[in-house]
Design brief:
By secondary structure, the chain is mainly alpha-helical. It has nine helices and two strands. Strands 1-2 form a two-stranded antiparallel sheet. Strand 1 and strand 2 form a beta hairpin.
């Protein structure tokens, strides 16, 4: 009888332990969703780029190796709310980029280099700028933006990432001088063209 009693007690003890274990597992399962949710929130993994997105550009363009200067260097792209990168404005280069193919946007001074707009038209160059800089805001800042937007590239007056943007806080007298200088050259070019036309007719 003694052995049977001991066996019975062992069975009862094991049953009690099993019951306790099952109750604990049930309680854990009930609390799991809340605990899992809290863990998911606290342990959210944010992916960060380990490599500078402009590294491929600055590997060759050494003059930009220290990053962009000026406003674009500290600006946020309104289209993706991320810092402005080379490819935001210039586009993604192709494998043939180093061979000089037209795969990225190249900005130019269309007033000084009119031939540059044959390969990169004014509308295409300024279209990149307008993807962030809204025409209405530019028009309100200075009426000249509206007048020149279809006739000159933005980079005829502005620079993309200089140490100091020449158009920021420009004095009124300097602004007027800029207008006069440009338009004086325009008038001289027109006069020269007319003179050449006139001399050509006289020669005939």
């Amino acid at each position: 009888m003694g052995d049977l009693t001991m066996d019975f007690l062992r069975l009862m003890l094991m049953a009690a332990m099993l019951l306790t274990s099952l109750q604990g597992q049930a309680a854990d399962a009930a609390n799991a969703p809340a605990a899992l949710s809290a863990t998911a929130v606290s342990a959210t993994h944010e992916v960060e780029f380990l490599r500078n997105p402009d590294a491929a550009c600055t590997d060759c363009h050494k003059e930009q190796a220290y990053g962009m200067h000026g406003k674009h260097g500290q600006a946020t792209n309104p289209n993706n709310l991320a810092p402005v990168t080379c490819t935001n404005c210039h586009g993604q280069p192709s494998p043939q980029h180093r061979e000089g193919v037209k795969d990225v946007m190249r900005f130019s001074d269309s007033f000084k280099d009119k031939q540059s707009t044959e390969r990169y038209p004014i509308a295409e160059q300024n279209g990149v700028c307008m993807s962030c800089h809204e025409p209405k805001v530019l028009r309100e800042a200075l009426w000249a933006h509206d007048v020149h937007a279809t006739k000159l590239t933005c980079t005829s007056c502005h620079q993309l990432h200089p140490a100091k943007e020449p158009m920021v806080a420009i004095p009124e007298k300097s602004r007027i001088k800029l207008c006069v200088d440009c338009h004086s050259k325009q008038h001289e070019a027109v006069k020269a063209a007319k003179a050449n036309t006139t001399s050509g007719k006289e020669a005939q």
